[in-house]
Amino acid sequence: MKKRTLAQIEQEIAETKAALADVHGTETEVYARIVGYYRAVKHWNNGKRDEFNLRKMFTLEDSHLNERASEVSAKTASKNTAKAEKSSQPVLDTGIATYELYTRKTCPNCPPVKEFMANVEVPGRNIDVDTEEGLAEAAKNGVFASPTVICYNNAGVETARCHNVDELEAVFNKIAVLA
Fold first, then answer.
1. R_g over Cα of the chain
2. Hey, which bits of the chain come out as E strands?
3. In the predicted model, is pLDDT for residue 27 greater than 50?
4. DSSP E strand boundaries for 20-97
5. Would the pTM of this model clear 0.90, i.e. be above it?
6. Residue 163 near residue 171, CB atoms below 8 Å
7. End-to-end alpha-carbon separation of the chain, Å?
8. All residues at 6 or more sequence positions from 97 whose CB lies less than 8 Å from its CB, including other chains
9. Which of 34, 40, 146, 160 gets the highest tally of CB atoms within 10 A of its CB?
């Protein structure tokens, strides 16, 4: 390893700072889903672009639902703690007590998700959004695509929302690791 002097190191630092000051990025291309597929926003027509600009990003941390979920979680946690103190085994809330699976008959992505959920040892129900009742329930729960699996904990609070087998495997593998 060759030795460098302090002056050489300071010169390299100055050169690096100068190079970083001259860095110019390129325009970032934003892709979003429109009419069932992803496409660059800059290629959308004016109406769709205006609609995109009106969209709001939802995060659970910023929502009032997070406060309610925290209150319910705190109540459930205190109940679980009391139960754990009574028994010798610790209580582990896996986060999924039941699920709802929203599907359509003509959906090409629904069969693998149905098959995955059939092999899961969690009780749940299938909701066909081709029916008026199913469509009304999907609208009530904010389901805009099929397949959608909504998982609920013991308190009835949504803990996960998945749209494909990869997402389901991630959720259920996480629970298996916790158990």
1. 25
2. 31-34, 37-40, 98-103, 124-128, 148-152, 158-162
3. yes
4. 31-34, 37-40
5. no
6. no
7. 51
8. 122, 123, 152, 153, 154
9. 146
